Amino acid sequence: MQLAAIIVSLVLIAVGVALFGRAIVQIYQFMRLGQNVPAGTRTDQPVQRTITVAREFLGHTRMNRWGIVGVAHWFVAVGFFSLLLTIVNAIGQLFKADWMLPIIGEWAPYNVFVEFLGTMTVLGIATLIVIRQLSKPDNKPGRKSRFAGSKKGQAYFVEAVILIVGVCIFTLHALEGAQHHVDSYEASFFISYPVVSAFQNLDVSTLQNLTYFFAGLKIATSFIWMIVVALNTNMGVAWHRFLAFPNIWFKREADGSTTLGELQPMTSGGKPIDWEDPADDAVFGVSQVEQFSWKGLLDFSTCTECGRCQSQCPAWNTGKPLSPKLLIMSLRDHAHAKAPYLLAGGGKDMEGNEKATEEQLKDVPAAAIAEAERPLIGTAEENGVIDPDVLWSCTSCGACVEQCPVDIEHIDHIVDMRRYQVMIESAFPSEAGTMLKNLEKKGNPWGLAKKQRLEWLKELDFEVPVVGKDIEDLTEVEYLYWVGCAGALEDRAKKTTKAFAELLNIAGVKFAIMGGDEKCTGDSARRLGNEPLFQQLGQENVMALNMAFGEELDDDGKVTPESAKPKTAKKIVATCPHCLNTIGNEYPQLGGDYEVIHHTQLLQHLVDEGKLVPVTPVEGIITYHDPCYLGRHNKIYTPPREIIGKVPGLRNEEMHRHKERGFCCGAGGARMWMEERIGKRINDERVDEALSLNPDIVSTACPFCLVMLTDSVNGKKNDGKAKESITVVDVAQLLLESVKTPVDPAGSQETADEPEPEPVK
User: Fold this and answer.
1) 146-158, pLDDT tens digit by residue?
2) DSSP codes, 434-499
């Protein structure tokens, strides 16, 4: 037995190490197929990035949101790396059954560590196995299982390997105690002593043979796993334990913050595209998998198929074809299958001609060449990798990115594919074309005349200064109120606009609005994929804003250095989270750097200062819906809830899915302008969740959400599924209803130490 164990183990070790080394080289070459990223964007602040990796791994900051799953996975993950010396120990035991590691082999702290972590690894993987079995598609049919679509055979193989190796570590440690005559409880065997005691009843020969068997089993299992993994470089359920580290290190934000908020500028060849004079060979968006950046290819390979993104996705939960997990898996499998063709020099030029010679492609497998012929975006009949319905189902809500434990940047990749479809193929849902035409011609999605942007002012009984009409610039006021297209033009959103303006007037806050020449911020155009239109709208707005803040522009429309003002001198408040996100997070890419806050942040500040005092009770049960672009994208969760909590009479009930796990209304990602033809309407799903609490009021803090939720509630009223008295309102409307008596700002409490609302990053 000893001889057989030695021979088999050494052969497997040699083969495993050789194949694994080759696989690492293959993956490195594969990643290099992707496009470069702009210099410094993924490698700045190396110390901070390293700290982020350590924090995310050791703290399991994403996984621990899932309770027992996170704890169990922590022990499995940490045990995998920290118990590597047990392999060395097992190799020694093949040659001498009672062999121990030099120096530390008899050191009690090391043995306690092995004893504890080995045991917890077994318990951890056993827990994960049970959870997978309880949650597998057979037990949770349809779309309820987050493992639906995952490669279960690979997952079972990995789980079995970890379980066998963990049991072997525990058993070999107990055999070690028996062979060294441990005859009482001691720290080194504080868990395994009962097993040690049982082994002591066996004769020496039997103990040795058991040691040879379990040592050989541990080594064989470990290196069979290594061989299988090395031969399957797209086996994310195994490779994620190695690739997660670089994937987290190279994430967009060095401090580890979620890769949400702004979209990245379009690049070609690793450099941002110059929209005034794009290069002749510039690549617009992604139409072939090798046009993704190397970070994108790394993202695809890191996916562990856990399905957390899928379980949170509003599209998947309402019967749409989009699953973020399945999308990433499809891109990964396609990329790896196509890799031999690309590594041989294969590829198509802009006219679709093959760049490689027959000589270069002669040794490329036929399967790789066939894979290269597949369109990246195409229907099943076209043998496409990603179906168009998958691409256009995304609301860019960010739930997938928020939950991904290995920091995959799903939204960036979806938008990159959309960009090519819109800009080059002109292939997108037809109804979205109306929105784009309206933006181009009228500067707003509804196509209304610009003079209508100021019509809401006529319904106020006080004056609101207008830049360029009543005041020359914004130096005389504290805030510019960016009303936005919906706030100025959509009837339901205008109620929020008027309520907020009245509250500011009551509180004595000096503010002004733009004169009507401003355009849509371009949020929907950018997320639909029309980057040039976003650039056009954004640059016009940035120029208008800079001038409104009293800065002078040169001939190129750039702010002159001598007139430039600090960010803190350019304060903007917005009622629309999409405007907030675009102006605060994306306009810096266009030369506009402003301090931007949401209206709920400012209102909370005014309430805390005593400048707004809610006194009149608003009776009833209320539930608050988190707008995705306010919550997940910009981490603003508390202010709306604080305001609701200050209004007398309200009883706040949280929906099951709220804050980081809040469920989308269905309007983001330009879906506001597209019809839902597949599955259940996302807004209906959200309203059903709200109605389960039997509320009197459904509240939110976004004009898009207000429209979507109101439409669904009205539909359910008509069908008799919702009580007639239920209302959908913005937080500002609630506060105004309670603040009936104007409060003299001069007579309010002094709150000098009250912090200013925190602007968008």
Assistant:
1) 999 999 999 999 9
2) HHHHHHHHHSSTT---GGGGGGGGGG-SS---BBTTTBSSGGGSSEEEE-HHHHHH-HHHHHHHHH
